[in-house]
Design brief:
Strand order of the largest sheet: 1-3-2-4-7-8
CATH architecture of the largest domain: 3-Layer(aba) Sandwich
Strand content: 5-15%
Distance between the termini: 37 Å
Number of helices: 19
Helix content: 40-55%
Number of strands: 17
Shape: globular
CATH topology of the largest domain: Rossmann fold
CATH superfamily of the largest domain: P-loop containing nucleotide triphosphate hydrolases
Largest sheet: 6 strands, mixed
């Protein structure tokens, strides 16, 4: 099958976009829009034609419809992810087909558009996709996630993958485990790095101000609105909006947030028309969102829309081997070149402490210790660790439920086995004394890549 090439393709070395749709009118519309943006386009009407086009040349972006005569868009997404990993792909879905969009994002799609295709949204998506980093990156920024444990290596690997997508991300983990740091790293390594990173603590905003804070307002919309003002969505346009403690949002605001995420449009308080926004959503909470859904305090549809991809930040108890390197990094941050020594006894005391507050608590402990230290080195007494937390029956568990505690131990054992076998699952199953099928089930249940 031949691939229809754009007759309006500009001369010169331009970014090339592959457009896959079985409707000639849609192909023509997208082709014309891309041409006016100074981009070269190639058009295909089926999965087979798309594969042929990909074999014939390189593309900097692929746009594919979900419904094709000889397959579906997910086939294209998976094929590109496997054979052309540096090419971002976005899918075009029927209006209201959220399930298809989420499935495509989980399969590796960069983003999605809903039919009828809005030209403003199309142009914003294309501009964002063409900024996606395609080569190897320096590791400087990721090294701010200190530690070489299996858990932290997995986190860094996930951040590399997530940075290439526009998919909404849900970062789970206990307070103090580094959720905002992970969100910032995803932002700075993504196409949105040219835009702002806007962190919002959802639990700190009064309920009666939420809509105006998130979406902005027009002059005269209410008493005190003396001029137009942008909200968090407009401020984060072109960048990333980080919603921390998203479980604290009231149900009424959850409905509005769901619409803004799905439609990629917001309406200011007092305005008549909606305006498009180009924002990548990352959310986090220390609560279990699934439990909040079961209790009726968090909308199920919003949960599935936000939890397209989950990044779990391990607690410090799950990576105690990282404590020496964390201590060195934190003391360097606190003291600069005049880093104090820390005694072996003090390090042993830290290794025996359960850290309910995770890395944030470790930083607070060391900051206090540097102020109290009177000798040449930080000693165990300078740490002022709570005696009742040391060697208690709940050592290593903190405030975890029994299920969370057992899942943590199981996860740690599996990650260590995979690290020892260099990712060989068959060998890891043999090392753990379980069948390969049992290991595969556990990997899926625990969300281990």
């Amino acid at each position: 099958m031949s691939v229809a090439r754009s007759e309006r393709r500009p001369r010169g070395e331009l970014s090339r976009v592959l457009v896959i749709d079985d409707e000639p009118d849609i192909r023509e519309l997208i082709d014309l829009t891309l041409s006016r943006m100074g981009l070269a386009a190639a058009c295909a009407g089926s999965v087979a034609e798309a594969r042929q086009a990909l074999a014939d040349g390189d593309f900097q972006l692929c746009l594919t419809d979900m419904r094709l005569p000889d397959g579906d868009g997910l086939e294209v997404v998976r094929f590109i992810a496997e054979h052309h990993a540096q090419t971002p792909v976005a899918v075009i879905t029927a209006y209201g087909s959220t399930e298809n969009a989420v499935a495509a994002l989980k399969a590796g799609a960069f983003d999605y558009l809903a039919k009828p295709v809005g030209l403003e949204q199309l142009r914003a998506l294309v501009k964002s996709a063409l900024r996606v980093p395609g080569g190897q990156h320096k590791d400087d920024q990721l090294q701010s996630l200190t530690g070489e444990s299996a858990a932290m290596q997995q986190v860094r690997g996930m951040i590399e993958k997530l940075a290439r997508s526009q998919a909404p991300i849900y970062i789970s983990g206990e307070s103090g485990s580094g959720k905002e740091l992970a969100a910032r790293l995803i932002h700075v390594r993504s196409a949105q790095s040219v835009g702002p990173f806007v962190p919002v603590n959802c639990g700190a905003i009064p309920e009666n101000l939420m809509e105006s804070e998130f979406f902005g307002y027009r002059k005269g919309a209410f008493t005190g609105a003396e001029s137009d003002r942008d909200g968090f969505f407009q401020t984060a346009s072109g960048g990333t909006l980080f919603l921390d403690e998203v479980a604290d949002l009231p149900l009424a605001m959850q409905v509005k947030l769901l619409r803004a995420i799905q439609e990629k449009r917001v309406r200011k308080v007092g305005a008549v028309a909606e305006e498009p926004v180009d924002v990548r959503i990352i959310c986090a909470t220390h609560r279990n969102l699934r439990d909040c859904v079961d209790k009726g305090t968090f909308r199920q549809d919003l949960y599935y829309r936000l939890n397209v991809i989950e990044l779990r930040m391990p607690s410090l108890r799950e990576r105690m081997e990282d404590i020496p390197s964390l201590v060195a990094a934190i003391l360097k941050k606190l003291c600069g070149d005049a880093v104090p020594q820390i005694s072996a006894v003090a390090l042993q005391a830290l290794a025996a402490y359960p850290f309910p507050g995770n890395v944030r608590e470790l930083e607070n402990i060391l900051e206090r210790a540097t102020a109290l230290c009177s000798g040449a080195a930080i000693e165990a007494e300078d740490l002022q660790l709570a005696p009742d937390e040391m060697g208690s029956e709940n050592h290593g568990r903190g405030s975890e439920t029994l299920d969370d505690y057992l899942n943590r131990l199981e996860r740690q054992a599996i990650l260590e086995a995979l690290q020892k076998t260099e990712g060989n699952r068959t060998a890891a199953a043999r090392l753990l004394g379980v069948t390969f099928r049992s290991l595969r089930y556990r990997l899926e249940r625990l969300g281990i890549e």
